[in-house]
Predict the structure.
Amino acid sequence: MRRLTAFRGPIGAGVLDQGVWAGLGNAWRAELLFLLGLHPGTRGLDAETALRLWEAAVTYLALGRDAGQVVSDPAAPDERWVYKRERCRRCGTPVETWQLASRTAYACPLDQPAPYEV
């Protein structure tokens, strides 16, 4: 977790950076950040948020391992919240996509509000 809190770039890039956190792919990135309400462009995670992200990853990666696929909703294991969707599965808002860390990032602007930029 120390590497997560020390990373100063967008968290959406950090969780794909093998030097920060090995093992997450793009689908996991999109879904885990959604579950925590974190926008991929968020910078400077505090220790509490990093711990929540770690704990969510431990839980959902185990579900995915057992199911043999990404599972972000145990009640609907074949569905995703934002990954490769046109609309957020939770609220129906159009999902925003852009390039981040050479991969497509996905976020619901309602459930994952963009960080305030000065």
